[in-house]
Amino acid sequence: MVKGCIFDLDGVIVDTARYHFIAWKELANELGFEFSEKDNERLKGVSRMRSLDILLEIGDLDFPQEKKEELAKKKNENYRSYILKMTPDEILPGAMEFIKEVKENNILTAVGSASKNAMTILDRLQLTSWFDAIVDGTKVSKAKPDPEVFLKGAEELKLQPADCVVFEDAEAGVEAALRGGMKCVGIGSPENLGKAHLVVSGLHDMNMQKLSQL
Ligand code: BG6
Ligand code: MG
Prior knowledge:
The protein has 214 residues and is an alpha/beta fold. The protein has two domains: 136 residues, HAD superfamily/HAD-like (Rossmann fold, 3-Layer(aba) Sandwich); 67 residues, Putative phosphatase, domain 2 (DNA polymerase, domain 1, Orthogonal Bundle), CATH 1.10.150. The chain is built from ten helices and six strands. Strands 3-2-1-4-5-6 form a six-stranded parallel sheet. The longest helix is centred in the middle third of the chain and has 19 residues. The protein is globular and about 50 Å long. It starts with a strand and ends with a helix. Bound molecules: 6-O-phosphono-beta-D-glucopyranose and magnesium ion. The site of magnesium ion has 9 residues, from loops.
């Protein structure tokens, strides 16, 4: 029986990918090259510094570590200027309803996100109090596909990994959930999330019946 639901944030509860895209694109343009939406797909679920490495690879550029940190900081400041303006109406369709349904059924809820901005986003969306545990990029040292973020989530909920279901939109996140010994619902298309136990197009397509059948 499912005792806990652990939600990735970006791409599952809220579509922050477009703000990440705008901020990375502005940085790429400043550095003199183009960055497309297709390129941006490669950054989903990936940590900030690893994202920068991928971006620089696309631009065929490389910089010393100090300069990279400066560039990542610049991108993050730009990204934050967008997320600081977010409102609760940016919560993805069905997410609030499903989280409420889960809680009404006495299932614990957690966030498991790679983002160091997760608390800001949850605060802007007025969602913080809906979660029994929040594990974000400030609390983990190993990036997905390492299962650390989800194992910490289960631990904070005081649950066994096998009793938890992870909701993930990134391939690396699905991998992390499976490596952690959890059930996983992929949010997106079966094409790249096929390893998940179930794939749905969004939380609007989830319900208690589907959850209990996992
Ligand atoms: C993940 C996003 O949730 O967080 C990635 O899918 C992002 O695209 C990563 O790079 C880190 O986010 P932040 O907010 O710490 O730069
Ligand atoms: Mg995600």
